[in-house]
Design brief:
single chain, alpha+beta, Pdz3 Domain, seven-stranded antiparallel beta sheet, six-stranded antiparallel β-barrel, elongated
Length: 508
C-alpha cells in the first residue's frame, strides 16, 4: 500500500503526463499552444548545385566581336537572310507563310531598324555605316566567323573587340546557301579564339549561352536551352537549324552560341519575331555544318558542293503505298535536269532515292545535304526504288552550279467539256502542245483538289505509265487496283516544274 507521499508523487507524474499529452494533441491537431520566451531562427536555404555561366562567359567573351559593315546598298537586314525579298520565295516556303501571316513585319532576321522599330529606308548610292552584326575568332591569327547576310554587299569591314579596339578586316569568303562568311583581321597580336563543338552531342534541353552585339550595345550575354533540333525554316536548301530560347535580337547575327564547356555549338542566324523583338525562338546553324563550311572558306574562300541535278519531293504514305514501298522515306525524283549527272546515269521521273553509298536517305533535305558533301567528280552509288524493285545506280557527281531555267507560261484557253474522271473529280482533254492530259476543270471538294491538283496541270503519267488520253488514265488506274494498290501516283507538269500526287483509288 502506497504512502501519502508516494500517492502524491504518482498523481503529480500522471498529471504532468496528461498535460504533455494534451499539449501534443494540441500541436498535432493545430490548436495553438502558448509559447514562453521562444524565438524562431531566420529562414536559411542551402543553395542547390545549379550551374552558373560566369566562368564560361569570362573565358569566351574576348573571342566574340562586333562586325560593322559599310555598303553601297540598302541594309541587308531589311531582306531578312540577305537573299531576295518575299517575291523570291517559293509558294510553299515556310518563310513565305510566316510573311503572309504577319505582313511586312520581317518575322525572321536580326536586321537593323530605325527609331520606333521601323525598317530603315533604302539607301543606295552612298555608304551606310549602320549595318552591323556579331562574329567570333576561330583562330589565333585573326579568322572571324559571321553570317553571310551580315557582310553581303559590304565594301568595308571593321571588327570591334570586347575592349573597344577597332580593327579592319577583309572578306575571305562567303556562302549564301548556309548563310556563313569568314573575315580576316591582319594584326601582330595573337587573338583569343574559340572552337566548334567536336562531338555534336548537343541535346534538346541542354543549357546554352549566346554572346553577341544586339542593337549595337556591345558584348551582351543571354542564356537558355536548346528547344529543338533539325528545324527547317525555308532559309536555304541545307536548313538544319538548332532552335534556342535564349534572348537573341537584331545584331546577334553571326554571334556564337556556346555550351557550358565554352565550345561553339551554333552560329546565331535568325529569330522568329512578329514584333521585331525577342520572343524566345531563335535559330542557329549547328556546329556540325558550320565547321565544314568555315574550313573550306578559310582554305580558298570558296565552297565546292556535289550536284546530282534532280527535282525532288517528299515520299508521303500515299506515294509509298502507290509504288509498293514499305516505308515513306527517301526522295522522289520528279524530274532529272538536262545535261545533269542524274540524266547521264539514267535516273528518271518516279525513281525514289533511298540511299547514297549505303547511307539511308530520310527525305529530300537529307538527300540534298548528303550529295552536297560529295566531292565533285567522285563516283557515288545510289540505291533507288523503281518498278517495285530496289536497284543500284552509279553516278559521277558534278559540281553544283546555279541554273536558270526559262519558264514556259501555260495559260490554257477556255477548254471544251472534255472527259470527266468521276472518281477523282477531274475533267481532262488531250494536251495540245505536248504529251499528256490537260486538266480543264476540277471539283472543289474532290480528292484531287484536296491533294493540290489544279486546273491547268498536265497529267504526264500515272504510276509511271505515260498517258495521252482519259482512257490511258483509266487503264493505268485499273492496272494499279488489280495489283492491290490503294493509291495511284499522278505525275503532273505545270510551267517549268514537275511534281507527283498520290490519289486513293478507294474514292471511286
Amino acid at each position: 500500500m502506497l504512502s501519502k507521499s508516494s500517492r502524491a508523487a504518482r498523481i503529480g507524474l500522471l498529471t504532468s503526463t496528461a498535460v504533455f499529452g494534451i499539449a501534443a494533441v494540441m500541436l498535432t491537431t493545430g490548436i495553438p499552444a502558448k509559447i514562453h520566451s521562444a524565438y524562431a531562427d531566420a529562414v536559411r536555404v542551402q543553395a542547390a548545385a545549379v550551374p552558373g555561366f560566369a566562368d564560361v562567359v569570362e573565358a569566351v567573351t574576348p573571342a566574340v566581336v562586333s562586325v560593322r559593315v559599310k555598303s553601297d546598298v540598302k541594309p541587308v537586314s531589311s531582306q531578312g537572310f540577305g537573299g531576295p525579298g518575299l517575291e523570291g520565295l517559293p509558294e510553299d516556303s515556310p518563310m513565305r507563310r510566316f510573311f503572309d501571316q504577319f505582313g511586312n513585319q520581317n518575322p525572321f532576321g536580326f536586321g537593323e531598324r530605325g527609331e520606333g522599330g521601323q525598317p530603315q529606308p533604302e539607301r543606295r548610292g552612298r555608304l551606310n555605316p549602320m549595318s552591323q552584326g556579331s562574329g567570333f575568332f576561330i583562330s589565333d591569327d585573326g579568322f572571324v566567323v559571321t553570317n553571310n547576310h551580315v557582310v553581303d554587299n559590304g565594301t568595308e569591314f571593321t571588327v570591334i573587340m570586347h575592349d573597344g579596339t577597332e580593327l579592319d578586316a577583309q572578306l575571305i569568303g562567303k556562302d549564301a546557301r548556309t548563310d556563313l562568311a569568314v573575315l580576316k583581321v591582319e594584326d601582330d597580336r595573337q587573338f583569343t579564339y574559340v572552337e566548334f563543338d567536336r562531338e555534336d552531342t548537343t541535346r534538346i534541353g541542354d543549357w546554352v549561352v549566346a554572346v553577341g552585339n544586339p542593337f549595337g550595345l556591345g558584348g551582351t550575354v543571354t542564356a537558355g536551352i536548346i528547344s529543338a533540333r533539325g528545324r527547317d525554316i525555308g532559309a536555304g536548301p541545307y536548313d538544319d537549324f538548332l532552335q534556342v530560347d535564349a534572348a537573341v535580337n537584331r545584331g546577334n547575327s553571326g554571334g556564337p552560341t556556346f555550351n557550358l564547356e565554352g565550345e561553339v555549338i551554333g552560329v546565331n542566324t535568325a529569330i522568329f519575331s512578329p514584333s521585331g523583338g525577342n520572343v524566345g525562338i531563335a535559330f542557329a546553324i549547328p556546329a556540325s555544318l558550320a565547321k565544314e563550311v568555315v574550313a573550306d572558306l578559310m582554305d580558298d574562300g570558296t565552297i565546292e558542293r556535289g550536284w546530282l541535278g534532280v527535282q525532288i519531293q517528299p515520299v508521303t504514305e500515299d506515294i509509298a503505298e502507290s509504288l509498293g514501298l514499305a516505308e515513306a522515306k527517301g526522295a522522289l525524283i520528279t524530274e532529272p535536269q538536262e545535261d545533269s549527272p542524274a540524266k547521264d546515269a539514267g535516273l528518271r521521273s518516279g525513281d525514289i532515292v533511298t540511299a547514297v553509298n549505303d547511307k539511308l536517305i530520310e527525305d529530300p533535305k537529307d538527300l540534298a545535304r548528303t550529295i552536297a558533301k560529295v566531292k565533285p567528280g567522285e563516283t557515288t552509288e545510289l540505291t533507288i526504288w523503281r518498278d517495285g524493285k530496289s536497284r543500284s545506280v552509279t553516278v559521277e557527281i558534278g559540281k553544283l552550279r546555279d541554273i536558270e531555267k526559262a519558264a514556259a507560261d501555260i495559260k490554257p484557253s477556255k477548254a471544251p467539256d472534255g472527259e470527266k474522271l468521276e472518281e477523282f473529280g477531274l475533267t481532262v482533254v488531250p494536251a495540245d502542245a505536248e504529251d499528256g492530259v490537260l486538266i480543264t476543270e476540277i471539283e472543289p471538294d474532290s480528292v484531287a483538289a484536296e491533294r493540290g491538283m489544279q486546273k491547268g496541270d498536265i497529267i504526264v503519267a500515272v504510276n509511271n505509265i505515260d498517258v495521252k488520253t482519259a482512257d490511258d488514265i483509266s487503264t493505268a488506274v485499273n492496272k494499279a487496283t488489280e495489283s492491290g494498290r490503294k493509291a495511284v501516283l499522278f505525275q503532273l507538269s505545270n510551267q517549268d516544274s514537275s511534281r507527283f500526287v498520290a490519289l486513293p483509288v478507294a474514292v471511286g
